[in-house]
Glycosyltransferase family 4 protein (Sphingomonas colocasiae), 409 residues
Amino acid sequence: MNVLFVHQNFPGQFRSLAPALAARGDTVVAMGMNDFAGFPNIRYVRSKATHNTATNGHPWTRDFDSKVIRADASFRSAMKLREEGFMPDVIIAHPGWGESLFLKTVWPDAKLGIYCEFFYSADGADMNFDAEFPSGDRDESACRMLIKNVGNFLHFDQAAAGIAPTHWQASSFPEPFRSRIRIVHDGIDTDRVKSIPGVKLKLNDQIEVGREDEVITFVNRNLEPYRGYHVFMRALPELLRRRPNARVIIVGGDEVSYGAPPPKGKSWRNIFLQEVSDQIDMSRVNFVGKIPYQQFLGLLAVSTVHVYLTYPFVLSWSLIEAMAMECAIVASDTPPVLEAIDDGEHGVLVPFFDRDALIESVISLLDDPARRAQLGANARKRAVAEYDLRSVCLPRQIEWVDGLAAGGG
């Protein structure tokens, strides 16, 4: 079988699926917009945009304009591949940036399967969830979201089926396409992601911690309101006052992954740090930026309590990784976290904006080693049973791909 993967930042969510198909003998080609070192037996084609996003048009159309520019670049790469004789049976694409928009024009007989990460809505999800950062007038937001979803709508008629990592993310998509989405998580390698007994961790050549230390961890790709960074920081003064031996380690960059950017010249990290810095002992709060994956696992291994907060939005891999590492987790009671954690069984859930509940829940777990151990053990059991890459997720992903090739459903 010939398979084409399309993802702006390949491999992205296809980091395991693409090499697995190549390893079983399929001819796999990948297409993206950024540099990629490559996988064995996978040809990578980098598409290059030849246009710039218009700045003099309506601001609502700029996002779609960018998608068309990327789609055009991918279209031209696809034409060259077709000229070389490559004919995919299946195209598997993340449509979020637009690259796959015109590929069925090049290969009309190929079955297109799309990764359904999120369908934007003015109600019931991230938009206007946080009153501190309003998205504007509700009616205006609905108009903007309609335009933002144009790429999704244009894919629905072309795609044979979709795949989504959580039920809640799939539920954000409208019918009739929602019924064509299969729920399969990206998967976590729980053979690798597991507790590390006796670990000692040294970060940034200065922080050394072990299991015997009281360590509160907070991890985001980037530190921003969408992942509750502001809520966590505002909890620190009281939390550190009541736990004089606790150390807080915060992982994440200063860029923006989701939502609005901070005021020009500032970062969300510094905005909320400055808000509380005169109330906390900064020698006990360590920002370590983005760290290598093995260090990230080591940090989870020494975590006494791990905090994960999110708007109703896409689920972070880091939450499932923390579960697989047997962390004692305090998380927000927002979807899709509610699918992964049952309150009191696999972790403790608190209302996203309830700072006092967050503080009390963290302190309660810090005071109760037996409960931490039980929650961590239960969390790992669920991670292995429902999110393990090798035994659960990857076989289901491959089955989905084979179903696309066979009949498109």
